[in-house]
Write a structure and sequence with these properties.
Length: about 140
Amino acid sequence: MLRILLLFFCFSINLQHMKSQNVKPKVEKKIMDSMKQQEICWNEGDIDCFMEGYWKSDQLRFMGKNGVTYGWQNTLDRYKKTYPDKSAMGKLTFDIISLEMLDKDKTLMVGKWHLARSKDELGGHFSLIWQKIDGEWVIVFDHSS
């Protein structure tokens, strides 16, 4: 009986870690699948594949410690300059803290990112605004620090 209670307790803690507010399961699955695919692409050293989760538009915004980058191509170029090869890219993992609907076609995701490289480790937080555009959920705004 004690084992069952312990398992239930651990399971409920994991459920509490990522809070989804008013997000339909189908929407949550699509967004989470996209995040998982981004991890896979990054960890294979494929920034072009990683960028598939972003809105291919000049209106995409990426905000980091050096300010705002506007546009999909500029964001891709920034990533390639900052992470020129697989060793610089390391192994990326995301830890999603929350996902909530802003309106019927927009969500806000908050999480942590961690990059393990042979020479060091980096990490920080992010907030992403996802929007359903032409039937697909894509990142339209990324603030990573």
